[in-house]
Amino acid sequence: MFKKILVANRGEIALRVIRACKELGIKTVVVYSYEDRESIPVKISDEKICIGPSSSDKSYLNIVAIAEAVLQTNADAVHPGYGFLSENPSFAGVCRDLDVTFIGPPIPVMKHLSNKLEVKKQLKKTNIPTILGSDGIVQSAGEAKEIAEKIGYPVLLKAVWGGGGRGLRVIREEENIENAFLAAHEEARVSFGKADIYMEKFIEHPKHVEVQILADKFGNAIHLFERDCTLQRRHQKLLEESPSPFLSEEKRKEILDIALKIVRILNYENVGTIEFLLDEQENFYFIEVNTRIQVEHPVTETCTGIDIMKEQIKLAAGEKLNISQEDVSLKFHSMECRINAEDERFVPSPGKIEKLFIPGGPGVRVDTAIYSGCTVTPYYDSLIAKLIVRGNTRNEIIERMKRALDEFIVEGIKTNIQFFKKLISNNRFKNKDYDTNYIDRNFLK
Amino acid sequence: MFKKILVANRGEIALRVIRACKELGIKTVVVYSYEDRESIPVKISDEKICIGPSSSDKSYLNIVAIAEAVLQTNADAVHPGYGFLSENPSFAGVCRDLDVTFIGPPIPVMKHLSNKLEVKKQLKKTNIPTILGSDGIVQSAGEAKEIAEKIGYPVLLKAVWGGGGRGLRVIREEENIENAFLAAHEEARVSFGKADIYMEKFIEHPKHVEVQILADKFGNAIHLFERDCTLQRRHQKLLEESPSPFLSEEKRKEILDIALKIVRILNYENVGTIEFLLDEQENFYFIEVNTRIQVEHPVTETCTGIDIMKEQIKLAAGEKLNISQEDVSLKFHSMECRINAEDERFVPSPGKIEKLFIPGGPGVRVDTAIYSGCTVTPYYDSLIAKLIVRGNTRNEIIERMKRALDEFIVEGIKTNIQFFKKLISNNRFKNKDYDTNYIDRNFLK
Amino acid sequence: MDIKLIKKLIVLMQKSEMTEFKYRDDDFYISLKKEQLQVISSVQSKSAIEKEEEIKKPSKEKELIEIKSPMVGTFYCSPSPGAPPYVEQGQDVKKGDVLCIVEAMKVMNEIEAEFPCIIKKVMVKDAQRVEYGTTLFLVKKA
Amino acid sequence: MDIKLIKKLIVLMQKSEMTEFKYRDDDFYISLKKEQLQVISSVQSKSAIEKEEEIKKPSKEKELIEIKSPMVGTFYCSPSPGAPPYVEQGQDVKKGDVLCIVEAMKVMNEIEAEFPCIIKKVMVKDAQRVEYGTTLFLVKKA
Question: For C5, which of D1, D10, D33 is closest by C-beta distance?
Answer without folding.
Answer: D1
